[in-house]
## 1
Amino acid sequence: MTQFFTIAIDGPAGAGKGTLARRLADHYRLNLLDTGLTYRAVAYALLRLGLPLDNVSAAETAARQVDLAKLDRAVLSAHAVGEAASKIAVFPTVRRILVEKQRDFARTPPGAVLDGRDIGTVVCPDADIKLYVTASAEVRAQRRLAEIESIGGTANFAEILADIQRRDERDMGRTDSPLKPAADAHLLDTSEMAIEAAFLAAMSVIDDVLAKRNKA
Ligand code: DC
C-alpha cells in the first residue's frame, strides 16, 4: 500500500544523512531531495560568474533560477562549492526562495525524504518522521579522509577536522534556520554505527510511526 508521508532528515555535514536518505527513499518508494544541492546550486552560480558570495541580490536571482529537476550532483559536490553554499545559506531571502521550492517538492505525491539542516524545524515542521543524524567531528573527518584516500587522493586529517568544525559553527550559529534537532526528532548518532545499522534503526522508527498511524 502506498501512503503519503514525509521523512525529514537533518544533521551536520558528513554524518551519513545523504546515504541514509537514499536508502530510505528506495525502501519506502518516496521522492528524494538533497536540499544541500539547492544551496550549492546558488553558490555555484555566483562562483561561475565570479561574483562575491555576499552579493545577496545575485544570490536571490540564482535561487529563483534553481530547477530541482536539474541539480547536477557531479558538478555541485566539489568541496569548494559546499563551503560557498554554507556562506550564501545565511541570507534569509535566499533561504525563503529555496524553502518554497523544497516545500512544493515535499507536497508532491507519493511524498518524500528530504535531507538538509532545517527540514524538521522549518521546511517540513509537520513531517511524519524526523531524524537528526549526527556523528562526532573526529569520526566525520576520519570518514572524509578515508573517502579521499579510497580514490587515490591525499589529505591532512587536522585540516579536514578544522574544516568540518568551521562548517558546523557556521551552520549551527547562523540566525536564520540554524542547524539543530527539532524537538520531536529521533536522534541517530552514527559515530559508532555502520550505515546499515543506522538504516535499520531508522526503519524501525518509521515502521512504528506508520503502524500507529494505520491503527488510528
Ligand atoms: O549538505 P551539504 O553539505 O550539501 O550542504 C551545503 C551547505 O548548504 C551547508 O553547509 C549549509 C547549507 N544548507 C542549509 O543551510 N540548509 C539546508 N537545508 C541544506 C544545506
## 2
Amino acid sequence: MSKKTKYIFVTGGVVSSLGKGISASSIGLLLKKRGMKVASIKSDPYLNVDPGTMNPFQHGEVYVTDDGSETDLDLGHYERFLDQSLGKDHNVTTGQIYNTVITRERRGDYLGATVQVIPHITEEIKNRIKRFERSDEPPDVTIVEIGGTVGDIESLPFLEAIRQMGQEEGPQGAMFVHVTLVPYIRSAGEYKTKPTQHSVSELRAIGIQPNVLICRSAKPLSDSLRQKISLFCSVPPSNVISAEDAATIYAVPLGFHAQELDDIICTHFGWELDPPDLTEWETMVEKITNPQKRIKIGICGKYVNLKDAYKSIIEAFVHAGVYSGAEVDLVWVSSEDIKHYGAEKFLHDIDGLLIPGGFGERGVEGKIESIRYVREKNIPFFGICLGMQCAVIEFARNECDLPDAHSYEFYRELKHPVIHLMADQEGVTELGGTMRLGAYPCRLAPGTKSMEAYGEENISERHRHRYELNNAYRQKLTEKGLMIAGVSPDEHLVEIVEVPEHRWFVGVQFHPELKSRPTRPHPLFREFVKAAVEYNQERTGEKAAQDVAAGLSKSSG
Ligand code: GLN
C-alpha cells in the first residue's frame, strides 16, 4: 500500500528563541515512540547557503552531520530526540533555494518566463519539503520547522509555501503548530495573551489557521487563560498546549504527552496507534532532575559568553551526567583571562577540563596554559579538535623541548609546526563547505583509554577541520610519552592522542559531542565524566581528611 506522507509545520511567533526546535523534536519523539517513521526539516530564512561560514557569535554552533553538511544547531536537537542520523536534505536555507532557482534560470530552464518568488521560489521550497515523500521508504510524517518569527520579511516565502501545501494536502494531510509566548507582566501581576493573539492574526493574514498552539510561559497556563486563547485564536482549548519553563529540555515531550498532544495529532491525521512507551525517556529525565552528586568541569574557549556556540557539548555533558548520576556544572573560563592571570586562579577547584573546537589564534595561549596546568596536576582532560591540537602543542613545548611549537593555522613561518595543514587542503581558497567534513572511520589502538571507552576497534566520528598533527613530529612526541590512540585506516592522520600515565588525558581530532544521545551518552564523554567524578571523590575525600586532621591537631593543641 503506498503511503502518503503527512506534514506538520511548526512556526513561531512573538519572539525568537522560544524553543521551536525543541517543540518540533518533542513532537517527533512522541510520534516515533508511537511507531511512526518521522522525518524532520529545518528551514532557515537567511541567504547563506549553509551556516558553515557564519560566526558562532551570531548563529550558534554549526552542527555537522554524517554526510558532511554544515547545518543549523536545531538538527542537533532533532538527532538527539529522534536518535536518528540526518543529512543535507534536512536543512533548507533561502540561500540554497535561490542558488538552485538562479542556476536554472541561467541554464534557460524557465523557457523565457519571468522568474518570481511566487511561484518559482515557493515551488522550490515545496519541492525540498516533499523530497522525503519521493524516497523509496517515505516517512509517515515530515515535521517542518520554519526558522524565524512570523512577521519577518525573509520568512514570508516559506510561510507562503506551507500555506499552499496546507491547501494541496488538505485538512487531513497537514497540520499547523504555532509556538508563541505568553509573557508575565510583573507590574500587572498577570500573564498576557495579546502577543499570542496578534501573532495568530498575523498568521491568519497570510492564510494559515493554526491547529495547535504551544504557549511558552514561566508557569503552566491556567484554565481561564487557555479558554481565552482558544476563543480569540479559534483553536479548541484542548489544542492550546502549555509549555512552561522546564528543568530540562528532555522533560518537554513528557509535558506534551501529559496534555495529549500526540493524541490530538493522531486524531487529526486519522491514525489509530498504540500509546508511546516513554519509560526509558522518563527514567532519563528523572535522573537529570535528581542528580546524586555534582562535579565541576572547566571549559576554556573563545565564546564563553555564548552558550549556543557549544550547544552539543553542553548536551553531551547532560547525557554523560545521567550515566554517572551526576550533575555536571560547567564553569566557563575565558582563555584570555587564563593568559593574563594564570590557570591556578580559575582551575584550582575543577574536576576536569574540556577545551572545545575553534578557529583563529585568539585565546590559544590561554588554552595551552590551562592544558599544561591540568596535565601536570593530573586533572582529567578532554580536548576536542582545536582542543586536541592545543594539547599536542603544549606537549611538544613542555615535554619535547620544542618551546616554539605551534600550529600552522596561526603562523606560516614556524620552526616547529607540530600542527600542519592537511595535504588536501593546500590551494583551497573557498571557505564554504571545504573543510574535512563529516563521518570518517578511525582505528583505535589496543590498551588505550579510548579503546576501553568504545569497546571496539573501528569507530566512525564526525569531523570539521583543516589542520592535523604533523606526522614529521609523531616519533618525537611518542618517544616523550604522548600516545597515538587512534588513526585513520591508512594511518596517515592522527585522530586521537592520549597521555597514558595521566589519569584521563584524551584529545580527539573529531567532534564526539555530535553523536551523543540522551539515552546513549558518547563513550568518551561518559568516561571523561566518570573520571572527573572519581577525581572529585578523591579530591574532596582528601580535603575532608585534611580538615579532620587539621581539626584534630587543633583540639589536641
Ligand atoms: N581550526 C582547527 C582546524 O581547522 C580546528 C577546527 C575545529 O576545532 N573544529 O583544524
